[in-house]
Specification:
Layout: E1 2-10, H1 16-25, E2 30-34, H2 40-45, H3 47-66, H4 81-105, E3 109-117, E4 123-127, E5 137-147, E6 151-153, E7 166-167, H5 169-173, E8 181-185, H6 189-200, E9 204-208, H7 220-232, E10 236-238, E11 241-249, E12 252-259, E13 262-268, E14 270-273, E15 277-279, E16 293-294, E17 297-298, E18 311-313, H8 324-338, E19 352-354, E20 360-364, H9 367-372, E21 377-383, H10 388-392, E22 399-405, E23 411-417, H11 421-433, H12 438-442, H13 453-463
Parallel strand pairs: 1-2, 1-5, 2-3, 5-18, 7-14, 8-9, 8-14, 9-10
Antiparallel strand pairs: 3-4, 4-5, 6-15, 11-12, 12-13, 16-17, 19-20, 20-23, 21-22, 22-23
Helix pairs in contact: 1-8, 3-4, 3-6
């Protein structure tokens, strides 16, 4: 039995389900094939559960560190890790249920099973449970197929990586008991967010990162500030450190690594391997399917078309920004392209966010990027310790930085490390997408007292001096 649609989407993560809804609203008949649960990694094993755990742990830490300063008498504050896990799961479940309702409400047909693209362009689905007619394997046909199967954690190929107690981000969310100590291999976004959670809850945390600094892809000042903040939290950080092996020890697991050509060890009850992710394409292509690759990724052109006619790919399986909101944007654009329309979304500015404390966000170019591209720039910076809202909430080591073209004053990028940075960065995304200048961004009045006032001050600093910064010395 074969069922026909205008579009089949394999994968119901933030790229796939958004594309499916977009296509359905455009009048297409749409089917979505998902092997686990809608929402993909982001909702079930990534963004949402991680941020829920960060929120719970940060609130616990804030009560301990801030209550007395605020005149609040709070005694015997403890936490129940099991209930934190329940809260995390309840948040995820509510969002998953909502997405299922949205897909159903838009007439998207859902298939729970493993989707495989076949040589003739059809999609076979090995169902988790037999359908009403008793079929366990069904075939779907469509005018277009969208591959959106996302990514999975990758494990570094070292001895001991398969030991009990060595887990990936997926394993972290399955923990039912709070670890007393852990070693995190990888100081990227995933690694520093988990470090934040468990350090806030009192665990001994060690980060071992192969690159010269944590958050290597972020602005250098962000990395330096976060390292100082982590040290205050007693997080042990080792950068430029190459992990050689993992072994069992008397107090848990021992991670053997080399730092500055010297052997060293870190011990933890658990080891979290947060050293990257890889495209989730195992079983995606049937026998005889020949699709062009870009290294380990599926190759696509500017319209998200693969080398196979009418087959598109988005999200973490292609060599572009690997973020949930990027996948959603790519999915929307892919549906526009397959319908012969020019997308309204501008993909040149994709913000990146890190949910540490304080939050981190950046979009567009850093000063280093501009220098590498030989683009003359002006920059402005505001230290958030002079911001009224930051003083009220006792934020530390925060700043807002703006990079603009020297000649035109068009905003090229922004880097933020402060409370609500992940919410405020969208203002700069809009500015960059619309080629706005510093002066145009300054035309709007931002309310007081808010963290957003820091944006005004940084913009002012680009073209003169910000109001709430002491005047520079003049010779």
């Amino acid at each position: 039995m074969c069922k026909k649609f205008d579009l089949i989407v394999i994968g119901a993560g933030p790229g796939g389900y958004v594309a499916a809804i977009k296509a359905a609203k455009a009048g297409m008949s749409v089917a979505v094939v998902e092997n686990i649960r809608v929402g993909g990694t982001c909702l079930n094993r990534g963004c949402i559960p991680a941020k829920a755990m960060i929120h719970a742990s940060s609130l616990y830490e804030e009560i301990h560190s801030e209550a007395n300063l605020l005149g609040l008498a709070v005694e015997n504050v403890t936490f129940d890790y099991g209930k934190i896990v329940e809260y995390k799961q309840a948040t995820t479940d509510e969002l998953v249920t909502g997405i299922e309702a949205l897909l159903d409400g838009n007439g998207v047909v859902r298939f729970n099973g493993k989707g495989t693209l076949e040589k003739d362009g059809s999609v076979t689905v090995k169902l988790k449970e037999a359908d009403e007619e008793g079929n366990e394997l069904i075939s779907l046909e469509a005018g277009n197929v969208l591959l959106a199967t996302g990514s999975v954690p990758s494990l570094i190929p070292i001895p001991g990586i398969d030991l009990k107690g060595v887990i990936t981000s997926d394993g972290v969310f399955a923990l039912s008991k709070m670890p007393e100590s852990l070693v995190i291999i990888g100081g990227g976004v995933i690694g520093v967010e988990f470090a934040t959670v468990y350090a806030n809850l009192g665990a001994k945390v060690t980060i071992v990162e192969a690159l010269p600094r944590i958050l290597q892809n972020m602005d250098k000042e962000i990395s330096q500030n976060l390292k100082m903040i982590f040290k205050k939290k007693e997080i042990d950080i080792h950068t430029g450190a190459s992990v050689k092996s993992i072994e069992l020890g008397g107090e848990g697991l021992i991670v053997n690594y080399e730092e500055k050509d010297k052997p060293a060890q870190a011990t933890g009850q658990l080891v979290i391997c947060a050293a990257g992710r890889k495209p989730n394409i195992d079983g995606l292509f049937g026998d005889g399917v020949e699709i062009e690759k870009d290294g380990k990724f599926v190759a696509v052109n500017d319209k998200f078309e693969t080398s196979i006619p009418n087959v598109y790919a988005i999200g973490d399986i292609i060599r572009k920004t690997q973020l949930a909101h990027a996948a959603s944007a790519y999915g929307i654009c892919a549906v526009d392209f397959m319908n012969g329309n020019e997308p309204e979304l501008n993909l040149k500015a994709i913000p990146g966010c890190v949910y540490t404390d304080p939050e981190i966000a950046q979009v567009g170019m850093t000063e280093a990027d501009a220098k590498d591209a030989e683009i003359p720039v002006i920059s402005g910076k505001f230290i958030m310790s002079a911001n009224g809202k930051s003083l009220i909430t006792h934020e530390e080591r925060g700043f807002v930085k703006v990079v603009a073209d020297e000649a035109s004053h068009k905003v090229l990028g922004a880097q933020m490390m402060c409370a609500r940075a992940t919410d405020m960065i969208a203002e700069f995304t809009t500015a960059i997408s619309n080629d706005m200048t510093v002066e145009q961004m300054l035309a709007g009045v931002r309310p007081h007292p808010t963290y957003n006032e820091g944006i005004t001050e940084a913009l002012e600093d680009c073209i003169g001096e910000s109001t709430h910064t002491m005047p520079r010395r003049r010779r």
